[in-house]
Amino acid sequence: MSRLRALLNRLVPTGGTAERVVKSAIWAMGQNAFGRILQLAMLVVLARLIGPTQIGLVGVALLALSGIQKFTNVGLDAALVQDEEANVDEHLNTVWVLEIARGALISAVLLLAAPLIAQVLGDGNVQSTTTLIQVIALSPLLLGFKNPGMVYFQKNLDFHKQFVYRVSGDVVQVVVAIAWALVSPTAMALVAGYVAADLLRLVLSYLLHEFRPNLSFSRDSAGQLINYGKWITGSSILYFLYSEGDDAFVGAFIGAAPLAFYQYAYRFSNAPATELTSVISSVMFPAFSKLQDDAEQMRSTFKKTLRVNAFISAPVAFGIAVVAPDFVIVALGEQWTDMIVPMQILALYGFLRALGQTFGPIWKAMGRPDLLAKLGFLRVVLMAVTLYPVAVTLGYGITGAAAVVTVIYVFPMMPIDIYLITKMLDVPPLETIREIAFPTSASAVMAAVVWYVDSLIELPAIAELVIGILVGAVTYFAVVAVLERQFRWGIGRNVKKIVASARR
After folding, report:
1. CA distance readout (Å), 225 to 60, 157, 285, 286
2. Hey, is 210 helix, strand or coil?
3. What is the mean pLDDT of residues 46-70?
4. 412 DSSP 8-state letter
5. 309 vs 123, 276, 407, 469, CA distance in Å?
6. Nearest to 400 by CA among 410, 391, 409
7. Angle in degrees, 0-180, between the axes of helices 245-253 and 89-121, rounded to the nearest 10
8. Residues near 251 by beta carbon (within 8 Å), at least 6 away in sequence
9. What's the gap between Cα 119 and its chain centre?
10. Does 501 have pLDDT greater than 90?
11. 127: helix, coil or strand?
12. How far is CA 300 from the centre of its chain?
């Protein structure tokens, strides 16, 4: 026990910016990994207890909540993190008032619009879907009252406190949802877990930070914060349209059960790669903000971040694609096999998203959040033009929807991202492509070897899944070692520095 306490004390973010970034990344990665494992485990259990149609109805309720949240996101926390002033207490009461108003607005809209949303997306289950949406409307109302001092956890890289806040809610969500489903296997189990988690997080926000807000409001503070956040609002709306617009499309035009297949395919294909790399990106935004006046250090940090992101996300995405058939049968059961091909396609999309998460923090830190909105708008237009013809007119369904969002990211979005980031940081494009090419090549070799081994053996699905994962891991690290030795890639030095910083 004493050793564990000593280890945790060493991991508390202290020291200079570089050391704090590394230690914060470890906490954030632990938070995301543990939280995501809990979430995916819950989804596996509920997939068997509840079934695709009921889970599809929950997907509709969460889609409605997410949409209204994105449309009302004014980027207050991002504005405070980006502020070079270490102390932002003068803004926090104003932020609290604005968040309470926003939470009340979201809840009211959900309560009033629930019947209409259920009529459009509920696939005939209007009453059940209406009830689910109205219950989940409690969540934004609760979170509107959370302690605004929580922003210091990200601003000061105190991610060990953020870990407690997020993971505690995740644990409660899983426990409540599974317990409810065992007693009453309906869609309400997921919604009850979601609301219970946010209730706990409201309480924890005041236990974890000493700031105590009051109902005072500064028009100047509000104007200053919203002026920065207006592009965050735009990009948030567009993010919903291009990241969840395909979900809404599937729910409206294909059905609730296909929506469950599509959302599960998305979560299981994207979560491992994007959650791991979003940790790095969430830590790097405040770090980049502190470096915004040091161009050379910004360039160096960007390349190292992209290198680590690609090193982690490429093998995970390629691995998911190749083991998807065995995974779905083992984890979810035969009734979920319709999600296999979309899951394989969306694994590539997850890899591209993971890479893209390196670019966004740079643009925000350098005062160009407008790029997120402008690029998001382009993606939305391309999706709007192509989704219906491919998925409905040509009859490709959720497989077609998955292909559309992935192909759009391959071209033109990723080339545009690379062009803009290299121009902004004055980094040669080939250097950026090089950081992506090495892990992509190693992962492609890994996937080919796993596929070949799988074609040679005839075993139960769970045995093939375990063998595939082991063969993939060994192959990937072997190819990485060759690339590191032959081309001086640099990932070895990065990993050693991360480990060394964590041990301090």
Report:
1. 32, 21, 17, 16
2. coil
3. 95
4. I
5. 39, 8, 21, 20
6. 391
7. 20
8. 56, 59, 60, 63, 121, 123, 259
9. 29
10. no
11. helix
12. 25
* Residue whose pair of structure tokens reads 């980027």 in the numeric block: 75
**What tokens appear for 227 in the block?**
């002026």
Task: Show the tokens assigned to 336.
Answer: 């979920």
Q: How many CB atoms lie within 10 A of CB 84?
A: 8
Greatest mean pLDDT among 27-41, 75-89, 132-146, 283-297 lies in: 132-146
Domain ranges (residues) in the chain: 1-243, 256-504
Largest CA distance in the chain: 69
Structure confidence at residue 292 (pLDDT): 65
Tracing tokens 């670019």 back to the chain, one arrives at 359
What local confidence, expressed as pLDDT, does residue 7 receive? Answer: 46
Residue among 67, 71, 61, 54 at smallest CA distance from 114: 61
Residues 121-143, buried b or exposed e (16+ Cβ, 10 A)? bbbebbebbbbbbbbbbbbbbbb
Burial profile 463-474: b = 16 or more Cβ within 10 angstroms, e = fewer: ebbebbbebbee
Q: What pLDDT, on the 0 to 100 scale, is given for residue 224?
A: 87
Over residues 115-147, the pLDDT tens digits come to 999 999 988 899 999 999 999 999 999 999 999
pTM for the structure as a whole: 0.87
Can you spell out the DSSP letters for 69-110?
HHHT---HHHHHHH-S-S--HHHHHHHHHHHHHHHHHHHHHH
User: In angstroms, rounded to a whole number, what is the distance separating the alpha carbons of residues 343 and 350?
Assistant: 10
Please report, for residues 118, 122, 123, 272, 369, the alpha-carbon distance to residue 56 in angstroms, rounded to integers and kept in the order given: 12, 9, 9, 22, 33
CA distance 28 to 221: 30
Residue type, 197: A
Distances from the Cα of 102 to the Cαs of 73, 95, 115, 117, 409, in angstroms? 8, 10, 21, 20, 32
Using left for φ > 0, alpha for ψ between -120 and 50, and beta otherwise, residue 415 falls in: alpha
Helix axes of 414-425 and 370-388: crossing angle, nearest 10 degrees: 170
